[in-house]
């Protein structure tokens, strides 16, 4: 296969902002388990799982059988104006698992579309276009989702259907004037900041605060313990809804729980899901209290939302997650990776932090003056990981972090293999950078 020719055709046919990883872009041709194989026959342990979408890895028998069974019925697409048994079953399970009282469900095609729907519902319910989000948050690439994204790489032209104010979140805990505070002091400062933002920084009532329990694109930055608990009474006092964006943190990725919000003693008013539920098929949606969902008085029907194939795949994926207790696996192996990487690379000159929760982790790099050189180092380490047989992503406000989000089906042997390969790539980069500067690395 002519890889170079295909890569050139890709570059010619797609816009420049559809960037690819690696100096020599990857051209995958086969997936099996947690392994991806490219057109040249090289195989890689996948520690990125398509930005956490392939939570069960590749070629999963249960998903294939569920999809084949649906295909045998002859129904690939089904109008939302008809009743689908599997669609009802999936909605029932999600409503129960959400923890939200009197919950109802609306399906979408993607997580970004689900974020748009959640914001639409909240603003209708509250009769306000003012929304709060967290600094450095990421919520998707549709118009409404980008409007509440607090990362300058994704905000487009700055146009927005909302008035948006930004509160402190997970990333701020590690940077700027808050970096020296302990968790309790940081939470107090954040709560005071939120109250002042609502009181002085908003011209109208506020519809909702949207949060990621772990800010994934920002570099796997978990919200500080107690932060949502401190935010909740301030929101309730003003009638402001809490939206938990679980597109990346759902299905057990953060370890120990199905949802990221469950690491905090709160229950959101709306929950947004997507990515991993489909096991590779496109699906998203919103779970919300009935009174909020039914604030929409007009008709809203998306022709392909809740279609039979992704719903069948989603039911099989959810069965697999629960039957194999993958949230517990993510918690156990996430701790192994976090502790092991810290032990192996924290003493290098280029590593500023290793953080995350469950199987949503990041390594943050820094240049000699803590400047943008950290992004160059991250790319260098990413290339090194590929040479060592492991695929990883990039993240962080300056793309100065390595993003690690392997499938939840990761085994302990694979976790240790990936950890050693990543640590080796970090130390190799550390030595190379020290040599470039005429210095020495440990």
Automatic annotation (TrEMBL):
<keyword id="KW-0663">Pyridoxal phosphate</keyword>
<comment type="subunit">
    <text>Homotetramer.</text>
</comment>
<dbReference type="InterPro" id="IPR015424">
    <property type="entry name" value="PyrdxlP-dep_Trfase"/>
</dbReference>
<dbReference type="InterPro" id="IPR015422">
    <property type="entry name" value="PyrdxlP-dep_Trfase_small"/>
</dbReference>
<dbReference type="InterPro" id="IPR005814">
    <property type="entry name" value="Aminotrans_3"/>
</dbReference>
<dbReference type="InterPro" id="IPR015421">
    <property type="entry name" value="PyrdxlP-dep_Trfase_major"/>
</dbReference>
<keyword id="KW-0032">Aminotransferase</keyword>
<protein>
    <recommendedName>
        <fullName>alanine--glyoxylate transaminase</fullName>
        <ecNumber>2.6.1.44</ecNumber>
    </recommendedName>
</protein>
<keyword id="KW-0808">Transferase</keyword>
<comment type="similarity">
    <text>Belongs to the class-III pyridoxal-phosphate-dependent aminotransferase family.</text>
</comment>
<dbReference type="Pfam" id="PF00202">
    <property type="entry name" value="Aminotran_3"/>
</dbReference>
<dbReference type="GO" id="GO:0008483">
    <property type="term" value="F:transaminase activity"/>
</dbReference>
């Amino acid at each position: 296969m002519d890889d170079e020719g295909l890569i050139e055709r890709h570059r010619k046919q797609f816009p420049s902002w559809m960037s690819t990883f690696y100096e020599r872009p990857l051209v995958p041709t086969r997936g099996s388990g947690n392994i991806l194989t490219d057109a040249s026959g090289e195989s890689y342990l996948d520690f990125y799982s398509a930005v956490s979408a392939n939570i069960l890895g590749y070629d999963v028998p249960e998903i294939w059988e569920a999809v084949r069974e649906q295909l045998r019925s002859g129904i690939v697409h089904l109008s939302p104006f008809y009743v689908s048994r599997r669609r009802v079953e999936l909605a029932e399970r999600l409503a129960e698992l959400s923890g939200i009282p009197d919950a109802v469900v609306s399906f979408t095609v993607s997580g970004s579309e689900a974020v748009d729907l959640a914001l639409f519902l909240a603003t209708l319910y509250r009769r306000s276009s003012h929304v709060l989000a967290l600094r450095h948050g990421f919520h998707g690439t549709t118009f409404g989702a980008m409007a509440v994204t607090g990362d300058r790489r994704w905000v487009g032209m700055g146009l927005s259907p909302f008035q948006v104010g930004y509160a402190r979140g997970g990333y701020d805990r590690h940077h700027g004037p808050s970096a020296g505070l302990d968790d309790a002091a940081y939470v107090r400062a954040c709560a005071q900041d939120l109250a002042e933002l609502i009181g002085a920084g908003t011209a109208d009532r506020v519809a909702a605060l949207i949060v990621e329990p772990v800010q994934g694109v920002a570099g796997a930055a978990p919200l500080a313990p107690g932060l949502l608990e401190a935010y909740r009474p301030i929101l309730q006092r003003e009638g402001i809804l809490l939206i938990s964006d679980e597109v990346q943190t759902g299905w057990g990725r953060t370890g120990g729980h199905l949802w990221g919000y469950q690491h905090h003693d709160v229950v959101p008013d709306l929950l947004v899901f997507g990515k991993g539920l489909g096991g590779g098929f496109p699906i998203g949606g919103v779970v919300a209290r009935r009174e909020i969902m039914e604030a929409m008085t007009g008709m809203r029907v998306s022709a392909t939302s809740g279609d039979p194939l992704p719903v069948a795949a989603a039911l099989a994926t959810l069965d697999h997650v629960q039957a194999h207790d993958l949230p517990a696996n993510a918690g156990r192996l996430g701790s192994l990776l976090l502790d092991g990487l810290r032990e192996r690379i924290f003493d290098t000159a280029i590593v500023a932090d290793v953080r995350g929760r469950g199987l949503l982790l990041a390594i943050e790099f820094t240049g000699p003056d803590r400047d943008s050189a950290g992004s160059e180092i991250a790319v260098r380490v990413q290339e090194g990981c590929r040479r060592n047989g492991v695929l990883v992503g990039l993240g962080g406000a300056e793309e100065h972090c390595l993003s690690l989000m392997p499938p939840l089906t990761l085994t302990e042997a694979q976790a240790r293999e990936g950890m050693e390969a990543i640590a080796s790539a970090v130390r190799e980069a550390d030595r190379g950078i020290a040599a470039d500067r005429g210095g020495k690395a440990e």
